[in-house]
Design goal:
Blueprint: H1 2-20, E1 24-35, H2 39-42, E2 44-56, E3 62-67, E4 70-74, E5 77-81, E6 84-86, E7 93-95, E8 104-117, E9 123-135, E10 140-149, E11 156-170, E12 173-175, E13 185-186, E14 192-193, E15 200-203, E16 206-209
Length: 210
């Protein structure tokens, strides 16, 4: 019984750490977006694109996902879609185990509606579907969204797989996407620890005694 209680406490602490310690979690990667039905002629890829995920709601199981600006140049016609934040109202489900460090948090595809201020200064209605998956050991977030934007006659498809990072000076941690995973260690509740930390730590999903 004591062991089970300890496992429950550790799991709750892990989820709490994800929600509270990270706050707004930044991810950077290569995004792809295109006009649905015209993919071959409108596909655009952007390196070092950024999405932001913030846990919200009771129990912090919902996700506010901030999608960045998108810019098209189709045969000289330039279109700019301004950033917006989507929340489908779908709570995550968790797979894997904190014991092995392979936890994943999945937000199944759900509907969202929101607004943003367009490049012309006018309010734009944005509506569609969005899904996301965050891997705790890989520190990667994958987002897929398909949505209508303002009066545009075609829906837009956007997807990105980004690496988690913290900018220098934030909470005294400097982390970037080029950092080797082997250099990063976490304690049993999912909190990052320094290289001098002693005891049982998790590196690349494996328990290591220092």
């Amino acid at each position: 019984m004591k062991k089970i209680f300890t496992l429950i406490v550790a799991l709750v602490a892990t989820l709490s750490a994800m929600a509270q310690n990270h706050g707004a979690m930044n991810f950077v990667g290569t995004s792809t977006f295109y006009v649905v039905g015209m993919q071959e002629t409108t596909t655009t890829q952007v390196e070092n694109d950024r999405v932001v995920l913030t846990l919200t709601g009771e129990g912090s199981k919902l996700a506010d996902i901030k999608i960045p600006d998108m810019n098209y140049n189709m045969q000289g016609n330039i279109m700019e879609l301004k950033s917006f934040t989507a929340n489908s109202g779908v709570e995550y489900t968790m797979t894997g185990s904190f014991k092995t460090g392979d936890m994943a948090f999945d937000w199944a595809k759900g509907d969202f509606t929101t607004t943003t201020t367009g490049a012309d200064g006018q309010t734009k209605n944005v509506a569609g579907k969005i899904s996301a998956n965050y891997g705790h050991s890989s520190k990667k977030l994958k987002v897929t969204a398909e949505f209508t934007y303002g009066a545009m006659p075609w829906p837009i498809h956007y997807e990105i797989e980004g690496d988690y990072y913290k900018e220098a000076g934030v909470e005294g941690v400097s982390e970037n996407v080029s950092e080797k995973k082997s250099d990063v260690a976490y304690n049993l509740v999912g909190q990052r620890v320094g290289k001098d930390a002693k005891g049982l730590v998790v590196i690349n999903g494996k328990k290591v005694i220092r």
